[in-house]
Amino acid sequence: MIDRASRLVPEPRSSADVIGEHSQFRLDLERIRFSPYFSRLSAVTQVIAQPGAGPLIHNRLTHSIKVTAVARAIAVSLTDAASPYRAFALAHGCDAVVVQAAASAHDLGHPPFGHLGERVLDRLARETLGLPDGFEGNAQSYRIITALDVSEMAPRGLNLTAAVRTAVAKYPWTRFLDVDALGDGPLPRGLRRTADGVDVPKYSAYGIDAADLDEARRGLPPLRQSLECSIMDVADDIAYSIHDVDDFHRAGLLSQGAVAREFRGWMESCVRLAGLAADELVGRTAPPGSALEALRRKLNASDPWIADDETFRAAVGVVADDLVDGLLASPFDGSIASERALSSFTNRWITHLQSSVVPAPEGVVRAGLVTLDGPAWHEVEILKFVHRHFILDRSDIVMYQRGLSRVLTRAVKGLTAWIRDEDDRDRVPQRLKELVEIATDAYARLRESAPDGVPVPEASAVGSLGVGRGVIDYVASLSDDQALAVSEAIDGRPDRLWDIGQNL
After folding, report:
1. Is 27 left (phi over 0), alpha (psi -120 to 50) or beta?
2. Residue 428 φ/ψ, nearest 5 degrees
3. Alpha-carbon distances, residue 153 vs 2, 8, 12, 156, 351 (angstroms)
4. How far apart are the first and last CA of the chain?
5. Dihedral sign, CA of 332, 336, 341, 342?
6. In whole angstroms, what is the distance from residue 59 CA to residue 41 CA?
7. What's the half-sphere exposure (Cβ side, CA atoms, 13 Å) at 205?
8. What sequence ranges are listed for the domain HD (predicted)?
9. Among 32, 154, 182, 229, which residue's beta carbon has the most beta carbons within 10 A?
10. How far out from the chain centre does Cα 71 lie?
11. Does the model's pTM come out above 0.90?
12. What pLDDT does residue 19 have?
């Protein structure tokens, strides 16, 4: 088992280190919070872009700060002297500062424009730039802390401890995971079965960073999160299930009538809905409650270890009472009364869900080492359903996202063409040159020593792969506004020329 406080590049221990590994983890937390990548998150969309909804809407930074607060509260509760789970937590390693560091770093790799940007960059990375492992926000976060960010103590990355690097790795494998070795049983979250086999949509390291992840996790069971990572993961679920509802209510996007119709439709007709064929639950003619029924079936299929029809029914009732007939019954108007109602809703749910974290049952691969208890797990799934069904599928939001996808496409293709232009590539931004050099060196090292399962690139492909990964690293590090400015400038529009600034 690797020393949890070890670093890839040994650092001199200071006199402040007399309290042991805990101070090393505190140093990691400070390095992450002082990082320009962390500051950048204030200008990256969470779900709703701030210019259209106001400054009180969550961005990636405020989300990360709140995930950190929830994660710390869970870690402290699990290790409290009065906790029935204290022995379990200490046996698996549960340092609240490691948990805070992982929560602070977990979204560093999110590109401009939220999850839309992640999907667009993945498609461009694979189909246009020929990167076999594409783009993934979690893998980009790991790449930032280990290769792209800077510390005076190491030539690359922040040189964080093994415990913190491990805790950041929510999906501790690469896209090149040996899926044939997984068998026919349940899969960890982040993997899914398809008609063609097993897909790996979520992973925490690109092939060029896999050796670092293997080193950090040495001695840990394969495919299993560390306890500190599991706490961060649960805290992330809790935070965005509540804060997204907060945002949509504040922005006036959640219609009480539409939400009530769906919830009441299911509660009044769940027996009849259960008898409908799957294709009768979709489309304009689907009866009220059909989307919730589809969710119930999905949970039963993907998570039979915890999904339960009676618990689901009870959770629908709880969310209906508190959200539909409670919070949404009065439109948010910016008054003190509406702020108080929203604050009360948020605090009540955060407190309830934090106190519902328990060790996962033995042998359940779909869960980390900790999970929410049955009622809370169902409630979170239903709260997440509200924002997916009533917000993310709105045609006006989808229309806006289609426009943003073209912004990223122009930026990636334009920068790639520029750095491959023999007559003009010397004038590309210095930061882009450096990122291409870092990536090219990494692919060259991969030819010398590739971790198990990671494909070895051909010598002739190293330069092209380096350019592709460098461009993706560059665009992913932009803020929303910087991405818009770069895209317009490279497309020949001068009106935002001076908005680009000195990028990361």
Report:
1. alpha
2. -65, 160
3. 20, 10, 9, 9, 39
4. 36
5. positive
6. 7
7. 27
8. 60-241
9. 229
10. 15
11. yes
12. 46
| Residue-level length of the chain | 504
SS3 assignment, position 220: coil
> Residue 352 burial (CB < 10 Å; 0-12/13-18/19+)?
middle
CA distance 501 to 114: 21
Distance, in Å, from the CA atom of 293 to the CA atom of 267, rounded to the nearest integer, reads 10
**477 pLDDT above the threshold of 50:** yes
- List the helix and strand counts (H, then E) for the chain: 20, 4
Helix (H, G, I), strand (E, B) or coil at 372: strand
Q: Three-state DSSP class for 449?
A: coil
Q: Which residue blocks in 320-394 are alpha helix, DSSP H?
A: 336-354, 374-387
SS3 call for 151: strand
Token pair of 322, please?
Answer: 């508190």
Answer yes or no: are the C-beta atoms of 44 and 480 closer than 8 Å: yes
Q: How much is the pLDDT for 21? A: 66
Give the pairing type, strands 357-359 and 197-199. unpaired
DSSP H or E stretch at residue 22: helix 21-33
What tokens appear for 21 in the block?
A: 């590994």
What is the four-CA torsion angle of 402, 407, 413, 415, rounded to 10 degrees? -160
Q: Quick one: which of 328, 196, 345 has its CA closest to 254?
A: 328
DSSP 184: T
Q: Does 491 have pLDDT greater than 90?
A: no
Q: Which residue has the higher pLDDT, 502 or 98?
A: 98
What is the identity of the amino acid at 464?
Answer: S
The one-letter code for the residue type at 80 is D
Please give the pLDDT value at position 181: 84
Rounded CA-CA distance 432/500 in Å is 14
Distance CA 447, CA 464 (A): 14
Q: How far apart are CA 18 and CA 31, in angstroms?
A: 20
Give Cβ neighbours of residue 386 (< 8 Å, ≥ 6 apart).
245, 254, 259, 319, 323
Which ranges of 95-189 does DSSP label H, i.e. alpha helix?
Answer: 96-105, 114-123, 137-143, 162-168
- Whether 126 contacts 492, CB under 8 Å: no
Which pLDDT tens digit goes with each residue over 424-441? 999 999 999 999 999 999
